[in-house]
Write a structure and sequence with these properties.
3 helices, six-stranded mixed beta sheet, globular, 39% helix, YaeB-like fold, alpha+beta, single chain
Length: 125
């Protein structure tokens, strides 16, 4: 597991990647490039890098004890916090239905668990 920097700033936005450097989040965002929603989510992420996650629930909300989402149109980016003003994004999806949302939260929690183990073991690249 690796971390890739998405946006630097007072708050650093990072993306989870596999050992080859492939990131579900970056692949998802690349598939949205050229759309208004892509511009909107990049604006939300840029603002978060400068000022921290927005307090506006239409742009960012807490989904579970450790998982949050950035929102822009139909785009959702799941993330969690790490020490030192680091936002770690797990993946992105089109707005899920409520039942599917729970699976996406579970996926983000699973990725967070693997991240914490890799960080603790010193195997986070």
């Amino acid at each position: 597991m690796k971390l890739l920097e998405v946006l630097p700033g007072p708050w650093t936005i990072m993306a989870i990647a596999d050992d080859r450097g492939d990131s579900d989040l970056l692949d998802y965002l690349a598939s949205k490039e050229g759309t208004d929603e892509f511009e909107d989510i990049m604006s939300v992420l840029s603002s978060a890098a400068e000022h921290g996650p927005p307090p506006n629930k239409r742009k960012c909300r807490k989904l579970s004890s450790d998982i949050w989402e950035f929102k822009a149109g139909l785009i959702r980016v799941f993330f969690f916090f790490d020490k030192g003003k680091i936002i770690v994004c797990t993946h992105g999806v089109d707005k899920p239905k409520p039942r599917v949302l729970q699976r996406q939260i579970g996926r983000a929690e699973s990725i967070r668990g693997k991240y914490l183990v890799a960080k603790r073991n010193g195997t986070l690249g």
